[in-house]
Each structure stands twice: as structure tokens, then as C-alpha cells.
Design goal:
- The protein is α/β, with parallel strands linked by helices.
- It is built from ten helices and twelve strands.
- Strands 2-1-3-4-5-10 form a six-stranded parallel beta sheet, with helices on both faces.
- The radius of gyration is 19 Å and the shape is globular.
- The termini are far apart.
- The protein binds guanosine-5'-diphosphate-beta-L-fucopyranose (GFB).
- The site of guanosine-5'-diphosphate-beta-L-fucopyranose has 23 residues, from α3, α6 and β7.
């Protein structure tokens, strides 16, 4: 890409898309294309065709997706499978037919088998059963990877796929039913502190381990990979280390300044016990994450406080 390349960021209002847009604007890209969901429904094949025919982007970051935490995935399997398949089918088909130079598809670390050896290498894909709570989403994302590989094989399309670990950062979803764990804990500890609650409830047993990548690091990796990687195999993007959910809760509690207790609701699912990514291929290409977890949580908490509606309490 160069500063006047026409770059379409699909999903620019979401956690990942907004970070990619922020990164590209900051790097001086002056020909960026975005559409809100109201302006362009990516599940409407005709609308996607008309948009690409009219705008002819050269590069596409496909960050638009139906995403959510463990409870949302477990509750809405149709939405997570159907919506993500539909978006990917439409955008990849039209990107190929309108000769997009390069497309980067965002996936997720949940594509790997539940009992993968850790850390998980890209070649472990499809070597075992998936985690049931997010299998629909994982199947949709695996289909996206396979479609990128098929367009490369059959038509020579330069479509790459990037598999980030669990993400967090500004622009995250803080809804307690549909969000991922880190933003949920920020909100839970903040509101408990403001209300003076004696304890905060953490879902599950607290024993699963997760890896967390700040979304600004992911955006930097996506720009790097768009310019430096053109292969069929998905590329993992992570920080190379993880921590227990209980440790994370203690860290968020400290950052927020809450002094009450932590209790565990084991009626909620733990999900997979661990999903640490092997990031050696990415580091061999010359990229590594830079934002430390504590600093990233402090920055995200500050964003959460600034972005809450006035009078939202706390
Ligand atoms: O982040 P999370 O919802 O998704 O949950 P996954 C991670 C762990 O945190 C689980 C625990 O063991 C949860 O039980 N947890 C504790 C909480 N308290 C909370 C809470 O208040 N809210 C939430 N959400 N979790 C997702 C997949 O799996 O990972 C997605 O479902 C996607 O499809 C995403 O792949 C990256 O990490 O378990």
C-alpha cells in the first residue's frame, strides 16, 4: 500500500475496524473508504456488488463480523454462523470479481481445536474438535480462511487471513451479556467501586488461561502483513504469553482501584481451558506486539470512563 492507495476498511466502527482506521489515518493514508452498516449491509450481495463496482477499492481489510464473548456465542449460534458466512461470501466474491489487489480477512484464535497442544501453531487447524461454545463462529471463520485459499489457488487472488488472539482496547463492547472478559471485568469492577458493592462476580472457575492483545497492536500487525505477507496459510497474531482469568481479575481490580472481594459463578461456562497462540511465524516476518497488558488495561479503562454517557453513574 502507498499513501494514496484506495483502502476499504469493512467494519470501521467495531473494535478491530476502528483501530485499523485509526492506524491508517495516523500513518497518512489519504484515500480511505468506510461505510456504516446502515449505509451498506454486507449481507446483501447486490448492495456489496454495487458498492465495489462504484468505488473499486484496491485494498480491503475485512474486519466486519458478528462477534461476541462466550455467552453470546453460546446463545446465538445461528447469528454467529450465518452472518459471518454471509459477509465473507459476499465480500470475497466481489473483491475477486472487481480485481481488488489484496484483501486481509480477520479471523480468531477460536478456530483451533479445543485440546490443541499449546502454544497453537497455524498448522494445528482442523486437527481436532472445536470448543462447543464458539464452534459456529469458528466454523464460519475457518470457512473464510478456506475461501481465501480457494480464491488464491483457483484465481490467483492475493487474499490473506490473520488470526488474532483475544483482543481488547478502545472501542470495545462493554455490554455485560455480549462482551468479552476483559471489558466486562473493567465495567464490573468500576460499577462495584462506584456502588460500594462488597464483591464482584467473575464467570466460571477463574482457572482458564487467555492471551490478550491490544487492538492497536493488532492494527499495526494488519498494516504490516498487508504489506509484507502474501501466503495461503493463516498468520497468528498475539503477544506470546497468557494468564489465568483469576489473575486477570486481580489485575483489573487493581487498575480500577476496587477493594472488595471476587466471587466465581461456576454456572457460567469456562470455555476452552487455554488458547495461547504460537507467534513465531509472525516474529520471523519481523513483527512483535509492544503494548504491555497492564498499560493497555489502564488506557482502556481511561477510554471507558471518557466514553460513558454523562450521568451513567461512576
Ligand atoms: O472472553 P470470553 O467471553 O471468551 O471468556 P472466550 C473468556 C473467559 O473469561 C471464559 C471468563 O472462561 C469466561 O467464563 N469470564 C469471567 C468472563 N468473567 C467473565 C465475564 O464477565 N464476561 C465474559 N465474557 N467472560 C471467545 C469466543 O471465547 O473468544 C469468541 O467465544 C472469540 O468467538 C473470542 O473467539 C476471541 O475467550 O472464552
Amino acid at each position: 500500500m502507498n499513501p494514496d492507495s484506495k483502502v476499504y476498511v469493512a467494519g470501521h466502527r467495531g473494535l478491530v475496524g476502528s483501530a485499523i482506521l485509526r492506524r491508517l489515518e495516523g500513518e497518512g493514508y489519504g484515500n480511505l473508504l468506510t461505510r456504516t452498516r446502515a449505509e451498506l449491509d454486507l449481507m446483501d450481495a447486490r448492495a456489496v456488488e454495487e458498492f465495489f463496482a462504484a468505488e473499486t477499492p484496491e485494498y480491503v481489510f475485512l474486519a466486519a463480523a458478528k462477534v461476541g464473548g462466550i455467552l453470546a456465542n453460546d446463545t446465538y449460534p445461528v447469528d454467529f454462523l450465518r452472518d459471518n458466512l454471509s459477509i465473507q461470501l459476499n465480500v470475497l466474491d466481489v473483491a475477486h470479481r472487481h480485481s481488488v489487489k489484496k484483501l486481509l480477512l480477520l479471523g480468531s484464535s477460536c478456530i483451533y481445536p479445543k485440546f490443541s497442544p499449546q502454544p497453537m501453531k497455524e498448522e494445528y487447524l482442523l486437527t481436532g474438535e472445536l470448543e462447543p461454545t464458539n464452534e459456529p463462529y469458528a466454523i464460519a471463520k475457518i470457512a473464510g480462511i478456506k475461501l481465501c485459499q480457494a480464491y488464491r489457488k483457483q484465481h490467483g487472488a492475493d487474499f490473506i487471513s490473520v488470526m488474532p488472539t483475544n483482543l481488547y482496547g478502545p472501542g470495545d463492547n462493554f455490554d455485560l451479556q455480549s462482551s468479552h472478559v476483559l471489558p466486562a471485568l473493567i465495567r464490573k469492577f468500576h460499577e462495584a467501586k462506584e456502588r460500594g458493592d462488597p464483591s464482584v462476580t467473575v464467570w466460571g472457575t477463574g482457572t482458564p488461561r487467555r492471551e490478550f492483545l491490544h487492538v492497536d497492536d493488532l492494527a499495526c500487525a494488519c498494516e504490516f502483513l498487508m504489506d509484507n505477507y502474501s501466503g495461503g496459510r493463516p498468520i497468528n497474531v498475539g503477544v506470546g504469553k497468557d494468564l489465568g482469568i483469576g489473575e486477570l481479575a486481580a489485575l483489573v481490580r487493581e487498575v480500577v482501584g476496587y477493594e472488595g472481594k471476587i466471587s466465581y459463578d461456576t454456572s457460567k461456562p469456562d470455555g476452552t481451558s487455554r488458547k495461547l497462540l504460537d507467534v513465531s511465524r509472525l516474529s520471523e516476518l519481523g513483527w512483535r506486539a509492544r503494548i504491555p497488558l497492564r498499560e493497555g488495561i489502564e488506557q482502556t479503562y481511561a477510554w471507558f470512563l471518557e466514553s460513558r454517557p454523562v450521568g451513567a453513574g461512576g
